Amino acid sequence: MKKLLVSTLVLAASAAFAYPDKPVTIVVPFAAGGPTDKVARDLAVAMGQHMKQTVIVENVGGAGGTLGATKVAKAAPDGYTVLLHHIGMATSPGLYRNLPFKTLDDFEYLGMVNDVPMTLIGRPSLPANNYAELVKWLEANKGKINLANAGLGAASHLCGLLFQQSIKIDMTTVPYKGTGPAMTDLLGGQVDIMCDQTTNTTAQIAGGKVKAYAVTSAKPLTTPALASLPTLDSQGLKGFNVSIWHGMYAPKGTPAAVTAKLNEALRAAVKDADFIKKQEALGAVVVSDARLSPAEHKKFVAAEIDKWGPAIKAAGQYAD
After folding, report:
1. Residue-wise over 86-124: b if at least 16 C-beta within 10 A, else e?
2. How high is the pLDDT of residue 11?
3. Of 49, 141, 225, 254, which alpha carbon lies 20 to 30 A from 1's?
4. Is the separation of the CB atoms in 173 and 147 below 8 Å?
5. What is the rounded average pLDDT of the residues 285-308?
6. Are 82 and 24 in contact (CB under 8 A)?
7. Residue-wise burial string across 252-265, b where 16 or more C-beta atoms lie within 10 A, e elsewhere
8. Model pLDDT, residue 8
C-alpha cells in the first residue's frame, strides 16, 4: 500500500514537472470579438511564449458568462483548461439565483490581468456639455431619462446601477443584446446616456460622436483620447471607482505545482512589452500590484462580491 501511494505521488509530481506537455485552453465565457476575447487572445500569445506551448482560446458564451465558467469549474483539474473572466465572477452570485458554481470555492485563483476603466457618455444631442451640466439636466428630467446598457450583468449594466444609486436619481434602464446596438441607439439619440468600458467607447469619444463626461477610474487616464476627461470622484462622487477587471482561474483541485507554473506564465505575460502595448491601446491598465498573486486575487474578488451584491439587490434585477 505504501509503495502504491509513493508511486502515485511520484507520478503526480512528474506530471506537474512536465507541465505543460500539450496545448492549454483558455475558456472565454463570451462570444469571439468582444473585449474579453481580445484580452484572452493577446494573453494566450504572451503566455504561450513563456510556457513554450500552444495556448488556445475557446469561446463558450451564454447566460452572462456563467456557461463558460461552469465548464471550467467542472473540467479536469490538470491545468489544461483555465478560465479568463471579468467582473462577472464577482457579480454573478448577486445576479443569478441558481448559479451552478461557487465563485470562491470551485476555482483555484491564478492572478489578475488588467483593469479596464469605464466612461460616462451621452447622446450627441444632449444639451449638457460637462458633468456639472449633466447632473442639472438629470435632475430636471427625472422620470424621462433613458440609460442604455448591453444586457443584464454587462459592464454597462453594473456601472449604470451604481451611478444611479450614487446620484440618487432613478432612470429607465434600456437593456440591449450587446454594446453594438446600445451604442447605435445612443448615437441616434434613442437613449440618453450610457456608462461603458473604454474598450467600447474610446473610438466614439475620439471621433466626437458622443458627449463624454467622465471616467470611472481613481485617477485620470493617459490614453490621448481620454486624457482630458475628469474622474467622477474628482467631480463629487467620492469613491466612485469602477473598472472591469480580468482574472484567470483553474478548476478546484489543480495541483499546486501546476497553478504555480500558470501564475509564473501570467506574471511573465503582463510584463511583456507587446502585451502591455496592446492593452494600453484598448484603454486597459495591466495589473502590476499584489493582485497578481493567487491569494490577493481571491481576496480582491471576495471584496468585489461584497461591493456589488448590495447594489444588485437594491436594484432588484435578477436572472434565473
Report:
1. bbbbbbbbbbbeebebebeebbbbbbbbbbbbbbbbbbe
2. 46
3. 254
4. yes
5. 96
6. yes
7. eebbeebbebbbeb
8. 44
- Same domain, yes or no, for 15 and 74? yes
Whether 320 is in a domain gets the answer no
Cα separation, 159 vs 156, in Å, equals: 5
The range of the structural domain enclosing residue 172 comes to 118-235
Instruction: Say how many domains are in the chain.
Output: 2
Q: At what angle do helices 88-95 and 294-315 cross, to 10 degrees?
A: 40
* Percentage of the chain exceeding pLDDT 70: 93
**Cell numbers given for 258:** 501546476
Residue at grid coordinates 474578488: 301
- Name the domain boundary from 201, 235, 269: 235
pLDDT tens digits for range 218-230: 889 888 889 999 9
Buried b (16+ CB within 10 A) or exposed e, 162-172: bbbebbebebe
Can you tell me the distance from the alpha carbon of 83 to that of 25, in angstroms, rounded to the nearest whole number? 8
Q: Is the pLDDT confidence value at 72 over 60?
A: yes
Residue with cell 471550467: 72
Distance CA 236, CA 228 (A): 17
Report which residue type is found at 225: A
